[in-house]
Amino acid sequence: MAYQQKLAEKLLVLNDRGQGVLIRMNHIKKTCSDPKRRPSFLTDKATEPAVKYINRKFPNIDFRGGSQQLSSIQKQKTAVLEGLSSYYDSFVDVMEFRDHVYELLNTIDACQCFFNIAVNFDFTKNYLDLIITYTSVILMLSRIDDRKVLVGMYNCAHELSNGSSDPSYPRLGQMIMEYEHPLKKLTEEFGPHTKSVTEALLSLQMVYPRRNFTADQWRRAQLLSLLSTPATLLSPAACDTMACEYLPMEMMERWIILGFLLCHNSLNSNAASQELWKMALRSGLYVTLTRDEVINVHKLSEDHFDGIKGYSKRIADIKECKENAIANCGAFHREKRHFLRGALKELIKVLEDQPALLGPKALYVFMALSFSRDEILWLVRHSENIPKTKTPEDYSDSNMAELLYYMERLRALLSTYRYVIQRYHLQYLSQFDALLLNDTIQSIYVCPEEESVLMTSFVSQLSALNLKQLDGGEDFDLKAIRLDWLRLQAYSSVGKATLALKEYPDLAKIMNMTQFHTRMMDDVDELLIETADISILCFYPRVFEKMFSQSSEDTSMQRYLMAFPMVCAHFNQSTHTMCPEEMELMEKQTLRLCVKFLEEIAQQTCGVVLEICAEQCNLHEQLLPKHCAETISTARNKKLKKPMPKKGEVPKEKPGTESHRKDRAVVTNMDKMHLTLTELCTSYSMCSDFTAFKHILVPAEFLLSQLEQRLSKIFVRMANYNQSTQDIARPSELLSGIQAYVTGLNTLSRYITVDVARLVKTVLLQQTQPLDSHGAQTITTLYTNWYLEGLLRQASSGAIAHCPTMHCFVNHTSENEQNFKAQEFSDICELRALAELIGPYGLKFLGENLMWHITSQVAELKKLVFENMDVLVQLKANFDKPETLSNLQKRLTGCENVLKRMTIIGVILSFRKLAQDALEEVMQKHCPFLMGPIKYLHNFIHADTDIKVTMGVYELASATGMKCDIDPALVSAITNMRSDNSSTEEEYKITCLLLVYIAVSMPTLSIDPSTFYSREHGGHQNNVHCLSTAINHLSAAMFTAQDKNIQQHLKEFLQVASSALLQLGQNVDKVEIKNRDSVYLLLDMIVEESPFLSQDMLEDCFPYVLLRNAYREVHRTFIHTMG
Fold first, then answer.
1. Could you give the CA distance from residue 479 to residue 515 in angstroms, rounded to a whole number?
2. d(CA 547, CA 898)
3. Distance between CA atoms of residues 1023 and 796, nearest Å
């Protein structure tokens, strides 16, 4: 009879099916209660009359009488059928599940099965699970407020589409109506099963009270301690009820509370039942129905018993237990969590040191995981529903990170040393369990054939195991043994079984132990789900986030913070194939939590790292040369024996005094930050990456991302750019600060494995672009703006002079002092620092902006040429006729304007030359291997080389800062200026006339008193010496763009300029010839700078003696003024 009933198989299948149905019911409830996901048919105004009508008439809906109200469903009946079919099918699943459960429970009662958790553990557990799962499904069904509408509306659409109701509808409607008051109906149903249920529950008397010990009792028993009895350290952990040792407390409480609600008669008739029930009621206020759905056990029990006669004493018991739970259970579980943190820490230390102990002591690991899981789940479900109590702090735990961390470490140990565990238990199974089981079987007097075959197969399969299989990498699958053991329990637990298992407790003990050993071979992952799954946290995001927040505020917990995102990696273990819709929602929630936790850990770590870097930067800043003046002055005064400062003045501390320690107990702010950093970085050592729902998460990358974002902002902020006042930090100071930050960042790699070099390169490379990856301004943009608006604008107006001698720009001494010293931002050191900061890319961007300003000046020059076109044509034709030249010069307008604009171009190009020289030095320093080939290519270019090849090489060389005969950036800018309407011949003519215009305008410079050549600076006070740079570069670029001969046209320029300047020698007006010698020098400068002109060409049209006399005169003036 028992063989044919297949009780074991039905229990397994129905329990799995029941879990799926229960999760679907929960999903439907959540969907219908969420306005965003709620089916549209329940919210549309058009269907509102139909919804009200169905609710009122359910389940007997009159289609004829209600045709007006149901018209909206008639219009969209196909859509209703498609949209509500999954909901309707889910309710049908509940009905079918109920039918199968009824059938199985009746069969079990008919077989008069025996239940004892300590003997037939799997059979009893599956039986109790089925009862509670069924009860949970019905309670969950009753919590779906829209169940009538969903079922009724679907059936209406089916009726309107097919002319008849759905075949399942009559029974489904009746079932829904029956369970309007679910507990009342369930109690009636379970009346015949009271004996079996009570027997199964009372078997927990030996397990539940022992598992419900206080923390003090655990401590006295030295629970989970491997070191308490060193003599038994290598002995295998075993007991008569191994599976009961890690049975979840919440599961037992759910069995007891719901089981005795269904079969409450035993509470009045059996003192043991009553005592067990009270103990469960005292342990907490809520038990989980499924996911985040909980039952208020005291309220539910009181309401249920309130309508039953003769249960006033039980109601009084419930109230007393509730008061006891509110008063004591918070502190009770708080102390248990405190004990578990210490016990798990010790267990992990021992197992990490001696991982071979995982073989004999594997049971301890699963007990530790199960106990920890019990306490976490208790806290989670009560934190969301904190009762009115004087100690609400008992329902929160700022040290939860530590407990989660230890659970993750135990999981990791089981995964890492899987081979150790398998090797130990393989030998245990084949060399001990098989032999002991064989001896036990031999002692059984009467053994039916079916049971005999099963037990013989146990012995043969276990005896066949050997180490060669393990070493050969064979995958073990011992599920068949465990399923056969469940079958054997079912066969031997029926009332008239020939082999009654309760009469052979030794057999049960051996097989329960063997089952655990087989699970160590191939089912560790499933056992971890049973003992360590805390996926419920996914459904309590607010509680989970609060736990993380409390732990992150405690410095001692920061090393364990990584446990929070790692826990999320296990959330997929609670999904079920019957509810795929829930998986997508869980995946989003899991990833949201993971990312949030990782980002917050990264933010904390990043904040501490950058605080340390900022402090190091401040210390480094004290060592800058600008701060040494006071120290030098003090030392000099001491040497000269000058009076010391007054007593009231506090002497300035020297850099380094912060490192002097008079007492090691004194903790500085830097010490605290390093300690915090150590704690936070320790959390990153938990794992390099982990997977959550097939997404791989790398914690270190979150840290690098945070550092990248914040470093970019910090570096820009360190520049101290103020657009209104045009203040900015010196490039050398900014570079020094960044180097201090980089040095501080490198200390991070001592704590965790992160690529700091890659981080720094990424951040600094972004700073070489106009905008960073987030669209914010960079150092390149700030310095480009400042040099254009601050330095070069004032240089163009004459307030700042270009100083060729010192290779920088200097301020003119005047009443209107600038707010900065030009030489402090433009000397060789500063421009090298600028090149280090913004690199070739940044200087290219700076160059492009400089070219834009040059082209705007060129555009204005072209306008001036157009205005004086006729005169300039005549001047070009008659430059060798002095009288005609003189007369035509008088007709020219805007000569000063032309020279002013050319001077501005010259100033810009002079600055560009300084920047390019600095870039070349930096490139030579950092990558000489790259500069060598480029220099070779550059030197290979000669006059006959094709212009396209030449410009290609020049563009490459210019990008590295090398000096080129023709500036490729300027050529490109000039080329882009050409409009569609202008022809090449017109552009060429304008260029030629522009050179004539400049040449004939040069004599007017002698009138300007500021056209004075300063030997000290190596240039003119009004920067007209920059005309040489402007003329050479601009003419070369313009004639290259027009594909004309540069040298020929520069010769013509020399001839026109010489002719115009020679007329100054014939002028006797002292005002006009005051700075004549300084103007003559411009011709020599133009020739000196030009790669296309030579001194021979100059001497052909301008006497060298005049240049020699001019140099002597300006030097004599210099000596006189200095004398």
1. 10
2. 74
3. 8
Flag whether pLDDT at 559 surpasses 90.
Answer: yes
The answer to whether 111 touches 2, Cβ cutoff 8 Å, is: yes
With left for phi above 0 and alpha for psi between -120 and 50, is residue 703 left, alpha or beta?
A: alpha
pLDDT per residue as tens digits for the range 380-395: 999 988 888 888 899 9
Q: Which two tokens stand for residue 1103?
A: 């006497």
Q: 3-class secondary structure for 310-350?
A: CCHHHHHHHHHHHHHHHHHHHHHHHHHHHHHHHHHHHHHHH
Structural domain for 990, as ranges: 808-1117
CA distance 786 to 784: 5
How would you class 221 by CB atoms within 10 Å of its CB: exposed for 0-12, middle for 13-18, buried for 19 or more?
exposed
HSE toward the beta carbon, residue 459, CA cutoff 13 A: 14
Contact 270, 198 (CB under 8 A): yes
Residue 696 sits at φ, ψ, to 5 deg, of: -90, 125
Buried b (16+ CB within 10 A) or exposed e, 529-546: ebbbbbbbbbbbeebbbb
Query: Residue 361 falls within a domain, yes or no?
Result: no
- Residue at 628: amino acid letter: C
474 DSSP 8-state letter:
P
* Interatomic CA distance for residues 82 and 434, integer angstroms: 57
Q: How far apart are CA 930 and CA 940, in angstroms?
A: 16
Strands (DSSP E) contained in 770-851 are 800-803, 808-811
Contacts of 722 (CB under 8 A, 6+ apart): 728
pLDDT at 421: 96
Question: Is residue 186 one of the residues assigned to a domain?
Answer: no
Average pLDDT over residues 948-969: 92
Distance CA 235, CA 497 (A): 37
The total of other beta-carbon atoms located within 10 Å of residue 904's CB is 23
Let me know if residue 781 belongs to a domain: no
Distance CA 121, CA 1030 (A): 97
The three-state secondary structure class of 662 is coil
Task: Determine contact, residues 32/144, Cβ cutoff 8 Å.
Answer: yes
Q: Is 899 exposed, middle or buried (0-12, 13-18, 19+ CB in 10 A)?
A: buried
Does the structure show a pLDDT above 60 at 408?
Answer: yes
Q: Which phi and psi (to 5°) does residue 296 adopt?
A: -80, 95
- Domain final position from 524, 548, 563: 524
Total number of domains in the chain: 3
Neighbours of 206 (CB within 10 A): 14
Residues of the chain with pLDDT > 70, as a percent, come to 96
With residues binned 3-state (H G I as helix, E B as strand, rest as coil), the percentages for the chain, rounded to 5, are 70, 5, 25
3-class DSSP state for residue 1019?
A: strand
Q: What is the DSSP string of 497-559?
A: -SS-GGG-HHHHHHHHHHHHHHHHHH-HHHHHHHHH--GGGGG-HHHHHHHHHHHHHSGGGGG
Instruction: Look up residue 957 and give its amino acid.
Output: A
Longest dimension (CA), the chain: 145
User: Helix 869-877 vs helix 828-867: angle between axes, to the nearest 10 degrees?
Assistant: 100
Classify residue 40 as exposed, middle or buried by CB count within 10 Å of its CB (0-12, 13-18, 19+). Answer: exposed
Q: What are phi and psi of 984, to 5 degrees?
A: -65, -35
Is 1025 contained in some domain? yes
Torsion of Cα atoms, 357 then 361 then 367 then 369, to 10°: 20
Q: H or E element: which one contains 488? A: helix 479-491
For residue range 1057-1075, list pLDDT tens digits in order: 888 888 876 665 555 567 7
Backbone CA torsion sign across 540, 542, 548, 551: negative
Closest among 110, 100, 107 to 134, alpha carbons compared: 100
